[in-house]
Amino acid sequence: MVKAVAAVFVRKVWSGIQSRMLSAQADRVMENGEWEERWQEGRIGFHQPQVHKMLETNIDKVLAGRAHISFFFPLCGKAVDMKWLADMGHSVVGVELAEKAIQQFFEENNMTYSEEPVPSIPGAKVYRNPERNISLYQCDIYKFSSSVQGQFGAIWDRGSLVAINPRDREKYAALIISLMAKDCRYLLDTLLYNPELYKGPPFFVPDEQVHSLFGSSCDIERLLSVDALTDRQRSWGLDYFTENVHLITPKSN
Ligand SMILES: C[S@@+](CC[C@H](N)C(=O)[O-])C[C@H]1O[C@@H](n2cnc3c(N)ncnc32)[C@H](O)[C@@H]1O
């Protein structure tokens, strides 16, 4: 009895702390133009020149023995992970606002590309390298849907859920769920730090919120939790910075 009361108390205190932490960034808005400016000015400290460790470490869990998977990269930037997966024979679809990011991806990886409008998304363009089966859509993620390229067998979400504006998380989660094929394996990278010390992006996304966003239709397994504090985050004023990786799969009916 005492134990049960103590557990309820701890849960209540914890949930109070979480809501205070979430409210610290709830109203932060990064306009689309600000992202494009970052690309124009080369302020892309989030870009990593090598394949992301969390993807590399967990790739077997994402593939689960499957070959020729269709991978989706929301907010893809110029992640070299896309080439890494395409070289293994998977197909890749990415969505990115900044034309500069897409052009740099193909140029820096020595790939030619075609460029065409997307009839179903006014103003959008798709850049393709057919040899490698990579298609990158230049548009706002919220204009993308399963009617453009169907659903996906895998999703790699790094710098995506943590980069969209906090007020758009439900809309983003609904879109991601609609893009998941029945056998989809969605690898999600989230970050924990004190949001009262840094305004983001990247934004703080606690595990509880991952559960509230995806838990009703998906199973969620936290695969890893690592201390990822470096001088970059120390320069933001942070004293802890944890990276969590989750494997999210649609619940079977
Ligand atoms: C933090 S970066 C991460 C890029 C990439 N996932 C990586 O790991 O390197 C976020 C990217 O999302 C793009 N972006 C931001 N908001 C977007 C939106 N609403 N729709 C599409 N792309 C967006 C930005 O231009 C930026 O390249």
TrEMBL record:
Broadest EC class assigned to this enzyme: transferase
GO molecular function, one term: thiopurine S-methyltransferase activity
InterPro entries in alphabetical order: SAM-dependent_MTases_sf, Thiopurine_S-MeTrfase, TPMT
Record-level GO BP terms: methylation
Compartment(s) where it occurs, according to its Swiss-Prot or TrEMBL record: Cytoplasm
Principal place of residence: cytoplasm
EC assignment: 2.1.1.67
UniProt entry tagged with the keyword Methyltransferase: yes
Pfam families, A to Z: TPMT
Keyword Transferase: yes
Catalytic activity: S-adenosyl-L-methionine + a thiopurine = S-adenosyl-L-homocysteine + a thiopurine S-methylether
A GO CC term assigned to this protein in UniProt: cytoplasm
Taxonomy, superkingdom: Eukaryota
Keywords assigned by UniProt, alphabetized: Cytoplasm, Methyltransferase, S-adenosyl-L-methionine, Transferase
PROSITE patterns listed in its UniProt record: SAM_MT_TPMT
Protein family: Belongs to the class I-like SAM-binding methyltransferase superfamily. TPMT family.
Protein name: thiopurine S-methyltransferase
